[in-house]
Amino acid sequence: EPCIIPESYSYMIFPCVLILAFSFFLAHFVSFPWYWKWFKELIIGAPKVNAGVQIVRAPVEEDEGIEADAGDAPIIHQLAPNDLDVMWRHIRRLEENERVERNANVERDNR
Questions:
Q1: pLDDT by residue (tens digit) across 50-99?
Q2: Fewest Cβ atoms nearer than 10 Å: which of 34, 79, 97, 102?
Q3: Which residues touch 86 (CB under 8 Å, ≥6 apart)?
Q4: Do residue 27 and residue 63 come from a single domain?
Q5: Euclidean distance between CA atoms 22 and 110, whole angstroms
Q6: Are 36 and 58 found together in one domain?
Q7: Is 7 left (phi over 0), alpha (psi -120 to 50) or beta?
Q8: Where does the chain cross the membrane (predicted)?
Q9: Are residues 35 and 65 both part of a single domain?
């Protein structure tokens, strides 16, 4: 018997709509940040707090007669969004430590 090709493809509409709907659903399902984070933690495990942080130091131009050191200006590369908070907390802690140390030196010099 010869192969009979139907003239109408209307029977294909429902499966195509179904596939399209499923693909849109899948795309939105995967792109929900809260769900994706939970899913990744479930499968991979909770991420490390400061994963992906790399600090690369760059030279600084000389300013007002101060000699520039190659390690003066930190340039932050490859930071994940949740790592920025960790980084800024670290920087603030370092600044606070420097301030405390300066005050201690001033007090020692005044004695």
A1: 555 555 555 545 444 445 454 544 444 555 556 667 777 888 889 999 99
A2: 34
A3: 49, 50, 53
A4: no
A5: 74
A6: no
A7: alpha
A8: 12-36
A9: no
In the chain the first and final C-alpha atoms are separated, in Å, by 110
Q: Are 51 and 83 in contact (CB under 8 A)?
A: yes
In one-letter notation, the amino acid at residue 72 is: D
More confident of the two residues 4 and 68: 4
75, burial (CB in 10 Å: exposed 0-12, middle 13-18, buried 19+): exposed
The whole domain housing 28 covers 10-43
Q: Which residue in 70, 51, 50, 52 sits closest to 60, CA to CA?
A: 70
